[in-house]
């Protein structure tokens, strides 16, 4: 066997074991997960704020003049978007839990106990490879599985954040700003007031206000859907792709680590 092939896998193994102790990937991945957690909590707070404003609007009554009492629940226009906002807030809570779970798993994987176990297994495997000129299949499978479990979460976190920075950050900023602006704009509608405007003038103003509310609702729905897609990509789709890649690497590496290695 060429020397490059003979020593490539052991060198890669030593490098990975070294990374478990030095933890450069873990520190980077933890910073990325914390950034994602901060974004999800910001989106959750914005969703809850908008939901509270819509709830106030739904209880608003408009009274017009001494001759007629015109009562209109303006919030009825926002019923569909309010349901969407409530679901979005629940989704952001789940996303925040996912980011927190990533941080916990990375901290557990970065403990010295895990690093020590991987070091011992790697040392035994290297001894078998170079001294006995053969490796135990079960040891190779166990070692590869533990390495993948050790690094799959940090790699998934880094991949997710890099994808966000490259393709999603601008959309997040635009959508988040739009939701906050809509919350501020709708906030002015939510205070019930007594109006001395004549009833026929009040009807015209109410019609204009309903049109404004519909336009705001359409904008909010579009931006909320964008945020849902963004966070689902970050916490579901991309991590699943990383898991699939890890599974493929595990299957591909079993043959090289488990078979007899000739000198």
Element layout with pairings:
Layout (H helix, E strand, L loop, with lengths): L2 H20 L1 H35 L4 E2 L14 H31 L2 H21 L4 H51 L6 E2 L3 H60 L5
Parallel strand pairs: 1-2
Give a quick precis of the structure.
This protein has 263 residues and is mainly alpha-helical. The chain is built from six helices and two strands, in the order ααβαααβα.
Structural class: mainly alpha
Tell me the total number of β-strands. 2
Q: Order of strands in the sheet with the most strands?
A: 1-2
What about the largest sheet?
Answer: 2 strands, parallel
- Termini Cα gap: 6 Å
Helix proportion of residues, in percent?
over 70%
How would you sum up the global shape? rod-shaped
Rg over alpha carbons: 28 Å
How much strand?
Answer: under 5%
Average pLDDT, all residues: 81
The ordered H/E elements are HHEHHHEH
Low-confidence stretches: 65-72, 192-200
How does this structure look, described?
With 263 residues, this protein is an all-alpha fold. It is 83% helix and 2% strand. It has a two-stranded parallel ribbon. Helix 2 (24-58) runs parallel beside helix 5 and helix 4 (112-132) packs antiparallel against helix 5. The longest helix is centred in the C-terminal third of the chain and has 60 residues, at 199-258. The chain is rod-shaped and about 85 Å long. Mean pLDDT is 81; it is low at 65-72 and 192-200.
């Amino acid at each position: 066997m060429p020397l490059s092939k003979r020593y490539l896998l052991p060198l890669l193994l030593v490098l990975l074991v070294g990374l478990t102790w030095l933890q450069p990937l873990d520190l980077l991945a933890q910073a990325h997960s914390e950034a994602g957690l901060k974004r999800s909590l910001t989106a959750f707070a914005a969703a809850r704020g908008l939901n509270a404003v819509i709830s106030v609007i739904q209880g608003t009554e408009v009274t017009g003049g001494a001759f007629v009492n015109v009562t209109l629940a303006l919030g009825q226009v926002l019923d569909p978007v309010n349901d969407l906002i409530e679901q979005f807030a629940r989704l952001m809570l789940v996303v925040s839990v996912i980011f927190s779970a990533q941080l916990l798993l990375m901290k557990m994987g970065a403990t010295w106990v895990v690093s020590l176990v991987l070091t011992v297994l790697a040392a035994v495997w290297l001894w078998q490879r170079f001294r006995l000129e053969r490796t135990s299949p079960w040891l190779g499978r166990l070692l590869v599985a533990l390495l993948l479990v050790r690094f799959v979460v940090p790699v998934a976190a880094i991949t997710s954040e890099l994808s966000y920075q490259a393709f999603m950050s601008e959309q997040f900023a635009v959508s988040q700003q739009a939701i906050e602006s809509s919350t501020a704009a709708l906030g002015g509608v939510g205070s019930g007031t007594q109006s001395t405007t004549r009833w026929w003038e009040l009807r015209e103003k109410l019609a204009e206000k309903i049109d404004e509310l519909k336009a705001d609702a359409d904008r909010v729905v579009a931006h909320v859907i964008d945020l849902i897609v963004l966070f689902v990509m970050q916490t579901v789709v991309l991590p699943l792709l990383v898991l699939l890649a890890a599974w493929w690497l595990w299957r591909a590496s079993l043959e090289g680590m488990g078979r007899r290695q000739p000198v």
